[in-house]
TrEMBL record:
Organism, scientific name: Vagococcus zengguangii
Gene Ontology MF, one: hydrolase activity
InterPro entries in the record: AB_hydrolase_1, AB_hydrolase_fold, AB_hydrolase_sf
Pfam families in the cross-refs: Abhydrolase_1 (PF00561)
Keyword vocabulary terms for this entry: Hydrolase
UniProt keyword Hydrolase, yes or no: yes
SUPFAM superfamilies (alphabetical): alpha/beta-Hydrolases
GO cellular component terms, A-Z: membrane
UniProt-recorded name of the protein: Alpha/beta fold hydrolase
Domain of life according to the entry: Bacteria
Length: 258
């Protein structure tokens, strides 16, 4: 356990590094940071990343919330004893973590594949979810732009040829449909903020369709920005997401370009 200071006018926050050993023997590394008596916000990084992807978010969010930053299975300091990697495995890891930490309600911020995981967690465990922030999810692989899909498929062939099994499992996950249906999305009753870069690798029409199928969603398109909005536009992202998480009014379907 250690304390972090973010300037003379900022509160002291305590970071605790922890590990969860899952039922199948995976070790899931995560960090709890921020105000222990506040609402919980859990961050989910994208494919082949780790929790440090959100380095530009840690300071701002930990001042207002109890935040959880984890390395998902097969990523960062987390392990995977299985020969495969699926979204469902990661969802079950999250559920075990939530139960272990005695969390009854949380909001989730997911980037790319992390957003896909958040959606699936919401499908299987909706009672835990207060709000979702989803940055560039793709419910189906067809939502990824063709050239990006081609590059990823080529990378997967190279990794398999080199027998780099761990890396191949990760990349294969990014080429896997979530299995979420229109009916699944329409069942969600909590507020959802969708964020996409104008120059994203996800088709704009794909997220527009997803937003239409969600009952309580806002979609915001960030101009002159690519896939990685939290990293490329941290000031805007932090303020917008904090505002959304702190909203108490009802949410309706809305599209905004910024």
């Amino acid at each position: 356990m250690f304390a972090l200071h973010y300037g003379k006018d900022m509160k002291k926050v305590t970071a605790v590094d922890k590990q969860l050993v899952t039922r199948d023997g995976a070790v899931i590394a995560y960090q709890i940071l921020g105000q222990t008596n506040k609402e919980v916000v859990l961050f989910l990084h994208g494919n082949s990343q780790n929790h440090h992807y959100f380095i530009k978010q840690k300071q701002r969010f930990s001042q207002q919330f109890k935040t959880i930053w984890l390395d998902t299975r097969d990523h960062g300091r987390s392990t995977n004893p299985q020969e495969t990697l699926t979204f469902e495995m990661i969802v079950e890891d999250l559920h075990e973590l939530v139960v272990r930490e005695h969390i009854t309600k949380l909001s989730m911020v997911g980037f790319s594949d992390g957003a896909n995981v958040a959606l699936l967690f919401a499908k299987y465990y909706p009672s835990y979810v207060k709000k979702l922030v989803l940055i560039s999810p793709n419910v189906t692989v067809a939502g990824i732009k063709a050239f990006q899909r081609y590059k990823t498929e080529l990378l997967l062939k190279v990794l398999r040829g080199l027998c780099l099994k761990k890396w191949a499992r990760r990349v294969q996950l990014s080429l896997t449909d979530t299995g979420l249906s229109k009916d699944d999305l329409q069942q969600f009753t909590f507020p959802i903020l969708l964020v996409q870069g104008e120059r994203d690798v996800i088709y704009a029409g794909h997220l527009e369709k997803v937003a239409e199928q969600l009952s309580h969603a806002k979609l915001e398109i960030v101009n002159y920005t690519g896939h990685s909005v939290p990293f490329l536009r941290p000031r805007w992202f932090n303020e917008r997401v904090l505002s959304f998480l702190n909203e108490t009014t009802s949410v309706h379907i809305e599209k905004r370009e910024l």
